[in-house]
Write a structure and sequence with these properties.
With 73 residues, the protein is mostly helical. It is built from 2 helices and no strands. Helix 1 packs antiparallel against helix 2. It is elongated.
Length: 73
């Protein structure tokens, strides 16, 4: 998948809206749900990678205290 985080979130929001508001067939709903799960996992991976990069940035040769954080997805 080659989307930015913002593009993936936007598509995921659209899918959620469609599932909530449109009369989709069962098969269409399943396909939309599958795509939504795929997008969710993609965004979660991007956040995990960014968190790792931030931890590395906060570390230095002088032993700067590592600060971790959690992001709810």
């Amino acid at each position: 998948m080659n989307l930015t985080y913002e593009e993936a979130i936007s598509e995921l929001e659209k899918i959620i809206s469609e599932l909530e508001n449109e009369n989709c067939t069962f098969n269409e709903s399943i396909e939309k749900f599958k795509r939504g799960v795929e997008l969710y996992n993609y965004c979660k991976d991007l956040i995990t990678k960014a968190e790792g990069e931030i931890k590395i940035i906060l570390e230095n040769d002088e032993g700067l205290k590592e600060e971790s954080f959690s992001v709810e997805v």
